[in-house]
Amino acid sequence: MNIGRRIYCCLLLLLACSCSIYAQDVVLRGHITNRTSDSVRITYNTDRLAYYPKEFYAPLDRNGNFSVSFPVPADVYTMVELRHGNHLAELMLTNGDSLKVIADARRFDSSISYTGSGSDIQNFVAQHTLERGRVNQYTMRIRNHIAETPEDYLKGLENEKKEELAFTTRHGDKLPARFRRIWDASFTYYNYFFIEQYPQMHEMQRIRRYTDTIPEANYAVLKGLPDAFDDEYLQVPPYLLYLSGLFETRLRGAGYAVPVTDSANARKLLDSVDKLAYKLLPTGSGEYFIAQSLYARARVQYIERSRAVFAAFRKRWPASQYLPALQKEMDMAERLQAGQPAPDMNVTMADGKQVRLSDLKGKVVYISFWTTWCKQCVGELRMMERKVKDMFANKPVEFVTVSIDEDTATAKLLQQQMGLTGNFTYTTGGWYAPAAQSYGVRALPAYFLVDRNGNFAVTQPPSPQRSTELLVAISKLY
């Protein structure tokens, strides 16, 4: 995954905490007046490598009271979202917190307040929401500077951070020193991460389209980017983002090839990145770095490289907390290799007939996973309709689109509005839908090409956007 696209995936992890070992529960009680829903929902993520949010619900009684307890990682601060209807509050919780929250749904942000163990931190975060917005709004303010010159961009980021630190100075006198250090570090590492993103994002902003061709001048922002490594900040999500892109960005600025495909030059870049990580990073940061890199690339690079990286990781960190997730990802990478059987699933054919994917043996099958909220999915399905399908009329080729929308009716309606033809599968459950799980789908759109024997034809098939390559790939199989 190249840097320009990684930003969109990485930002899904901004609520991630940094430890998987649980201590005692957090207790959260509350009273909401003028309620707009019958419950509150608690969500947070405890997986550094992926976004699998944990959810807890608490009903409100007729007086608007609720109570809920849930486990959080030990000895770190975890960002938690409390939702009531359309209202959202951020909390930074640690094990042992016991809180009571009071809020009026008619003026939610300005009315919310906390008492109990940990309340100083939560009232500080609530005040931040009121004055500065939610934490991720900082990234939006940074993006407003992306069109500026490298010099002005760096000045803009520094001014944004100064305003955040000034807020902490005004309101943080009651905060624990460790929390204040972690909180302020978030904005420092957000800046570092977006400095890494600047070369490509600035060019894309300038030409108004995606590109990997980046002028050398754009990399001037990297000159002052420090090696600010500290395992204490593994609980700070922006620190993880900073780690994930640092070495690759620097090497690209030095002229290394962009790893769009699994070419020899791309492998040279990735091997160099890993060597720098092993050499320069402290133990915990290095463990995370290699783990997240392998997790992101296990399925999209030659399986031989993934096997080698995984073996080296297990040798270096035999008791790593990331090993279960990495083993699962490696198992999936092996299952999705060319020549392996494609998992079976139900398919509704264009004539309404219900069949199994295995019933289509003897034909080439191109499978597309999508949802209505994925704009790229919708755009590429339209592209497939215009540029690909007609080329295989009366050929032993089938196109199967798999919607993982929770709302099947909306998916069917959009399909009709776009005039999509072919065979469709509707399976609710989102990422947890059985078909999505069996194919290891964790990003959309996702494509799979199955040969006439029912096996995966290639490990990474072209998308409809690469229509010429897709036409050639399919034509080779029948």
From TrEMBL:
Q: Which PANTHER family match?
A: PROTEIN DIPZ, THIOL:DISULFIDE INTERCHANGE PROTEIN DSBE
What is the protein named? Thioredoxin domain-containing protein
**Which InterPro entries does the UniProt record give?**
Redoxin, Thioredoxin-like_sf, Thioredoxin_domain, Thioredoxin_ResA/DsbE_sf
Signal sequence bounds: 1-23
Q: Which UniProt keywords apply?
A: Signal
Enumerate the spans annotated as Thioredoxin domain.
336-478
